[in-house]
Specification:
There is one protein chain. By secondary structure, the protein is mainly alpha-helical. 53% of the residues lie in helices and 9% in strands.
Length: 90
């Protein structure tokens, strides 16, 4: 997983994704990359990694299989009504 990569490595990956997005939509390299990514519903590299970790954790908690993996996750109830529960992975 890319979750623990240092910021320099994430920046390298982002610098690879940006020109690919420009090529896919045939945009000038001077066009703002954020708008291109948004128009294609692409996430930035860091956001994509976080989303995949959250989604995988959700799927694991909802699944009836993989008990050995689910035992590694601890769900701590929130202390406030507004904040969500905290999930920690051992």
């Amino acid at each position: 997983m890319y979750y623990c990569l240092p910021r320099t490595q994430l920046n390298r990956l982002q610098h690879i994704q940006n020109p690919i997005a420009h090529v896919v939509v045939a945009a000038s390299r001077f066009f703002v990359t954020y708008h291109i990514l948004k128009s294609m519903h692409w996430l930035k590299i860091q956001e994509c990694i976080e989303y995949k970790v959250i989604f995988a954790t959700y799927e694991l908690l909802q699944s009836s299989s993989s008990h050995y993996l689910r035992d590694l996750i601890t769900v701590q109830p929130s202390r406030s009504i507004r904040s969500p529960a905290l999930v920690t992975i051992v």
